[in-house]
Amino acid sequence: MGNDKCVICRSAAGQMVPVAGFVGISCSQCGDYSINEQLVQDLAKARRTFNVVRAQTWLAISRKSGVIPTITALDVSIHGLVNDG
Ligand SMILES: [Zn+2]
Q: pTM of this prediction?
């Protein structure tokens, strides 16, 4: 996984130690989060992009629980984090 860009806002980003099946990203704009690897591939294949404002807002809210937010397909679907088509 040579992904050195934030999946959400496409800024240059660092990587965190990955958990199996997830990509860990440390972005100066979005903060630290991890995201399901399959989800990243599916979105890329479908040429869908994140709604940056919604995703960053959701991350900020999720982070209040004190854990690093993890983005799954379910979160994307429930919270509308990805732009349509
Ligand atoms: Zn970002």
A: 0.89
